[in-house]
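To: structure subgroup
Subject: Chain for Friday's discussion

All,

I'm putting the inputs and outputs inline so they're searchable in the archive.
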Amino acid sequence: MIKIDEALLIKLAGVGAFGRGLHILEEGRVRKIESTEGSTSAIVRGNHQYDVQLRHTHRLLEGACDCPDSQGIDFCKHCVAVALALQEDQAPTKPITKKNAMSAIRRNLSRLTHEELTEEFLRIVGRDRALRIDLLQKAQFASGA
């Protein structure tokens, strides 16, 4: 089996699709993963349900998806998400340290656009009343209100 890593997936899909695929995986939208020795299939849920097929050997990783971006042959964000899920399944379990978690979070956030980062932050603020009040007070102070 080919070693699946960030560099390979970025080479296959591009930086933008890699970041979006990572986000899809983190949201838990990859479902029904089934692997054999040379292939993996999965369903990725989003606005629609997409069927993803990966073919893998020790030297090759190819992806196909029925989403409009893939056109059935290109390695899209859905293929990235499934490949990352496959990578997680193959990786030996290691304890997550605060340092490793913060590093992974930083990498993920650095891939987001300003708009995506703002939306993610506002989503978090919407769930945390104390943080929302603190940020509102800072905004009011900064605006002179």
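Points worth raising on Friday:
The radius of gyration is 18 Å.
The chain has a mean pLDDT of 86.

D.
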